[in-house]
What does this fold into?
Amino acid sequence: MTSSTGAPIDRPMPAGERTTPTRIHADRAAGTLSIDWADGHSTIYNAHDLRWLCPCAFCRGEAGLPGWLDTSPTLTPDQTRLEDVHLVGSYAIAPTWGDGHHTGYYPFALLRERCSCPEDTQRRTRS
It folds into this structure.
């Protein structure tokens, strides 16, 4: 997590959990979100891929209806510009995007599961 000045905020978290972040940093200028996990792993998401992960009902659908992202839209620069990130309790983050979208809560378990590093990509392929 970062402060309003953009400096990283380190949060002490219980060690040993694969889905427990120890540091979250949104680099707005670079358009990235980096997370260091309690097990020593690090993940970097670019803002475009992170927006595609949005789990909210508008983006993913609900009650059997498809969401907006299911229509395969072309995302605009505003829709992929990371403006801010807030913690949601101790289980998720809530990004705010340049187009004002802010209803997606990204659980830490989802973020770790969707890590695009070769190790995690290979693990998902084996499963």
Strands lie at 9-10, 21-27, 32-37, 42-46, 61-62, 65-66, 82-88, 92-97, 106-107. Confidence is low (pLDDT under 50) at residues 12-16.
